[in-house]
Every structure is written in structure tokens, then in C-alpha cells.
Amino acid sequence: MMLKTAFVMLSAAQMAAGFSMTGNRNLQNKNSLASIIEPQMKVSSTSLFMADTETVSIEDITAELNQHKQDFDAKVAAAESAADIDKVRVEYLGKKGPINKVMSYMRLLPNEDKPKLGAVVNQVKGELESVIATKKEEMQGADIENEMKAEAIDVTMPGLKKNVRTGRRHPLSITMEKAVDIFTALGYDTVTEAENSPEIETDYYCFEALNCPKDHPARDMQDTFYLTEDMGHLLRTHTSAVQIRQLGKRKPPLRIVAPGRVYRKDDIDATHSMIFHQIEILALDEKGKLNLGHLKGTVEHFLNKCLDLKLRGKWLEVLGCGMVDPNVLEMAGIDPNEYSGFAAGFGVERFAMVIHQINDIREFYKNDIRFLDQFPSFHDEGLTSLLNGDVGREQEEVNIKTVESAVAETEAKPEKKEKKKKQAPAPAGDIDVSKLDIRVGVITKAWLHEEADKLFCEEIDLGEEEGPRQIASGLRAHYNLEDLEGQRVLVLANLKTRKLVGFPSHGMVMCAASEDGSKVEFIEPPADAKIGERVMIEGFDGEPATENQVIKKKMLDKIFPDLSTNSEGVATYKGVVFNTSAGPCVAQKKMPNSPVG
Ligand SMILES: *[C@@H]1O[C@H](CO)[C@@H](O)[C@H](O)[C@H]1NC(C)=O
């Protein structure tokens, strides 16, 4: 029975690995041996024990091999990786493994059984090897999968705050979302869908329907990106087009807020970008229900909510607002005698720049993380909490301080600022009315524009060698054709030639217009003024600018707001009268205190 003993000792390593060998008759024996004999000792002791053994049958050996195989199968089944399989292979098929050891029983076999031993052992060996090969391949696949599983990101796990950068909303997004939230809470509908707020607009929605006819100087100022040669399609220059589209779809009463991207052919600099954002609101109701007070209240509420600030000096620069032009309503098919309302809008970038004391608009588009990091994070509510200090993160502290000082500054000197504004309202550097070449002229011929039903075509004599100029004016709502011939007018003569619905127009006739645009009157030079003489404005006697400079520097934009009639209907620039050799120029019916353009 030495053989059995030897077997038990060979299996000691397996026992040490915690593998149980149920059904083994020598379990007791084996356990005690395993605990006494060191693994290295076992092999040599095996042969020691075997030295005295008499005989063993081939059946005994087969039975033993089967037992090994059974153990082997169990271990393979329990293996969890290719490395585990390798261990099992070395243990069983290695030089010192039980299978090879069985060959040492050769001398104990009866002579007739000796040739069978090799075949028996080899068969088992073959079987084990093939199991190993298959299993190992499987395991390698499983290993890769496990590895991938281990490296996968569990999105349900809480994020690690330390060392991980959390995302933030872009300051422009925060500003827009905040503004939209405030107006939504007041009952305004947000309009952002592409079909209601397209960035590619038609001339009609962007200009024409907004009472900005083809000869209006605002069109030059807008510096539009036109997309088609006939200038019918363009990239919208403002979000006001959204209002017109809504008016075409819905009947008042209505309240809408429209945030969106707009485009201008501006040179990029610290305060200009070719692409920027606007937010506009429009409120329409039965006539008389909404007045300037409501507009003021709404804008104040917005600024209050947004900034805890009162409507003062600085804000006027970023926020434009007014009552809706009745002509605009009429063109949209809404009776201005039935409905009225107000509109307001602001440039998001400018607004954010004032709030956060950012001095370069280009910072918004650089995506410099150091810049973006200074704004409230993704989880934050936006500007309110930033200003209230709710944000509570060290990073933002600097910014809160900046904003607070901005707020303090604005609150400290609103009066001063407003006074300054009245005295020198145009902080436009050296651009004043003298840049405009305003000449005395007379209409020598007039006819109706064939395609544009708002336009007159005129020939106006400015005493120029080349003869009268051709100019188109959108005055058909205010004058009859027969009124025009012989009419003395002032012409803004240094404007670039513009095609107005196919008619090249070489200048602009100056008129006074009531705030709502319903009344328009020619500014008339005195009867004795010389044709072609330049209008003088005391204290502003520079040389006129070139046509290109007028457009490039947006001079009309800067000068026109200061042109108006005084209480006697005399045209003035900052209160200084338009004078000629024969005296001042007056609105035809002396319309007082009205814008001139
Ligand atoms: C207008 O110009 C005339 C002629 O140069 C001059 O006599 C008159 O004082 C000027 N009037 C005003 C108000 O500037």
C-alpha cells in the first residue's frame, strides 16, 4: 500500500491550496502527512517510500490517473484567469507534476503491463493538455473583457470634485438663460425655434417690415451680410425680425422673448464682433393697455431681478426700448388703432461686459479656460447668485468683488453721468456734424418709383457742374408727387451711392419726423439760400468726411441722434441751428422737438 501513501503525499500541494479530495480512502493519512511534510520534501520522500514497494497493477495506475484528472478538472473549472490556468498546467503537467511522476511506477508494474504505462499516461496527458489549451483561450478573452469592465466609467458614481474640472455654463449662456427666465416668469413666450427665429432672413423681415425702407440710412449702418445678389436674403442683423414673424402668426395680445444670434459686417475689435447675441421682448395688447410706464416697469424689473440695480446711466447704453411703431404693426396686418405695445432689447455681450467689467468682447469667443472659470458654474443659477455671493466658491470671489465695485460705481455717479450726457452726448471722439456735407438743393423733377410703392425718384439740383443728382426718398406716405417739383430741400451729399430697388440714389433728403413716424416734413432752407451752399452749424466747422469714412466709422449712427428740431421747428445739431447765408433751416410745417434724419 506504499503507492497510496505516495499518492497522498503528491497531493499535499493541492491540499495546501485548499482543495478537498473527497472520496479518497486515505484522507486521514494524507492530511496528517500534508501537515508534516514540507512540499519540497514530498517528491524525494515519494521515491523513498516507493523504494520498498512490491508491485502495482496497471488498473491501480489508471484509477490514480483518473483521480488526478478529476482534481485537475475541478481546478480548471475554478480558475478565474489565464494565469490561474497556467498554474494548474504547471502543477499537473510540469516535470514534477503527478502525471509525470506516475511514470516512475514503471518498475513496480508486472512485466506484461510495463509497455502499457506510456500509452496510458500519454493519453491522460493529451487530454489535460487539450483542456488547458481550450480553457486558456477562453480565459484570455474573458480577461480582456474583465479589464474593459474594470476600466469602464460608472456614470452613476458621484464625481470626484478634487482634481477634476467641472463644466461651466458659458457666461453668454448664463446671461441669456437668466434673462429668458425672468421674462418667462412674467408670462413671455420664448421664441427660439429655427422656423420662427431663422438666422438667415429676408430683407422683408429684417428691414422692410420694421419700417426701415430701402433708402433708410440705418441699412448702411447695419453693415449687413447679404447672401444673394439681389440683397433679398441676408444674415439677420437683429432679432427684431422674430417679432415680425410672430406678428404674422399670432394675434395680440402677446408677449414674446426672443434670444438669438445676429450678424454684422463689423471689423472685429475690443467692442465689436461679427457674430453676437441679442435678446428682444415684445408686448402687445389692446390699445391703451400698455404704455411707457409698463415698459419702464418691465425693464426695471428685469434689471432688478438680474442685478439688483436701478435703471441708470450705464444701462441705457446696452438696453434699447420703446413703444412699437404703428407703421410696423400696420405692415404686419395689425390695426394700430386697436393694438399697441412696447419692445425692448439688448446685446448680450455688451450686457455681460458691463456686468462683469470685461473690456474685450473677444474674450467670450476664445474659450480660454482661465477666463471661463471666473463665472458661475454649471449648477449655479446665474447672475443673481453670483452677485448675491451665493456661489460660495473661492474662485468666484474675485469676480464678485469686481462686480460689486462696478455696481457701486454705477450707483455712485448716475447723476453726474446723466448731466455729462446732456452736455456732450456723443462720446464719439472727433466725429461731429461737420463730417456731414449738408447742401441746399431744389427738386427739379420727380416721379414714382415703378417697383417700390413707398419711393419717389427725384432729380435735385445742388448747383453741381455735373448737373442734378438722382435721389430716391421713401416719402410717398407723406407727400404727393405734385408737391415735389420746386421744393427746396437739404441734401446729405457725402453718402455712398446706393441702389434702392434698382434705382441708384446719390444722397439723402433731410426731413424731420415725429417719434412714431406718422408725420414727416422736409427741412427747408430759406428761399434766399444759394443752391449748392453748405449748411453751417456754428462751432462745428470741420471738413466733411469722405463717403467711405461716413460708412466705415458709422458716422450717421453717431451724429443722427443729436439732430432734431427745436421748439420753433428749426433743425439743430446739439441745439445749434442749421444756418445758411440767408438764415436758419426750418421744418416745413415747423414740427417742433422731433428727430431729424
Ligand atoms: C447765420 O449765418 C448768418 C450769415 O453768416 C449770420 O449772420 C447769422 O448770425 C447766423 N445765425 C446763427 C443763428 O448762427
UniProtKB/TrEMBL annotation:
Q: Which cofactor does it need?
A: Mg(2+)
Which N-terminal stretch is annotated as signal sequence?
A: 1-18
User: Region annotation Disordered: residue ranges?
Assistant: 403-428
GO MF: ATP binding; phenylalanine-tRNA ligase activity; tRNA binding
Alphabetized, the UniProt keywords read: Aminoacyl-tRNA synthetase, ATP-binding, Ligase, Nucleotide-binding, Protein biosynthesis, RNA-binding, Signal, tRNA-binding
What GO biological process terms are annotated to this protein in UniProt?
A: phenylalanyl-tRNA aminoacylation
Give GO cellular component annotations, separated by semicolons.
cytoplasm
User: In this protein, which residues make up the domain named Aminoacyl-transfer RNA synthetases class-II family profile?
Assistant: 181-440
Residues covered by the TRNA-binding domain: 432-536
One Pfam family from the record:
tRNA-synt_2d
Matches recorded under InterPro entries? aa-tRNA-synth_II, aa-tRNA-synth_II/BPL/LPL, NA-bd_OB-fold, Phe-tRNA_ligase_II_N, Phe_tRNA_ligase_alpha1_bac, Phenylalanyl-tRNA_Synthase, tRNA-bd_arm, tRNA-bd_dom
Q: PANTHER family in the record, alphabetically?
A: AMINOACYL TRNA SYNTHASE COMPLEX-INTERACTING MULTIFUNCTIONAL PROTEIN 1 (PTHR11586:SF33), TRNA-AMINOACYLATION COFACTOR ARC1 FAMILY MEMBER (PTHR11586)
Q: How does it assemble?
A: Tetramer of two alpha and two beta subunits.
What protein family is recorded?
A: Belongs to the class-II aminoacyl-tRNA synthetase family. Phe-tRNA synthetase alpha subunit type 1 subfamily.
Q: What is this protein called?
A: Phenylalanine--tRNA ligase alpha subunit
Q: Which organism is it from?
A: Chaetoceros tenuissimus
